[in-house]
Amino acid sequence: MDFAGQLLGVLSLQAMDKYNVEKDIAAYIKKEFDKKYNPTWHCVVGRNFGSYVTHETKHFLYFYMGQMAVLLFKSG
Description:
This protein is of the alpha+beta class. The chain has one domain: Protein Inhibitor Of Neuronal Nitric Oxide Synthase (2-Layer Sandwich). The protein contains 2 helices and 3 strands. It has a 3-stranded antiparallel sheet with strand order 1-3-2, with helices on one face. β2 and β3 form a beta hairpin. It is globular, with a radius of gyration of 11 Å. The chain starts with a helix and ends with a strand. 21% of the residues are buried. The mean pLDDT is 93.
């Protein structure tokens, strides 16, 4: 796993400890990645969702933390 992937794991844990609402978890992760890697990042967090996105090459991360999925990608 690359550094961005490791950072996403750490930020996801921090966000899930800090917030209970999926929208707030996603907002926290998105804002942190915008600060660290420049805008524009998009984040989706949840237990059940579909997606169809266009993203920049090598700027797409998707994984599960328990039953919670985290989708993060850069576009724009």
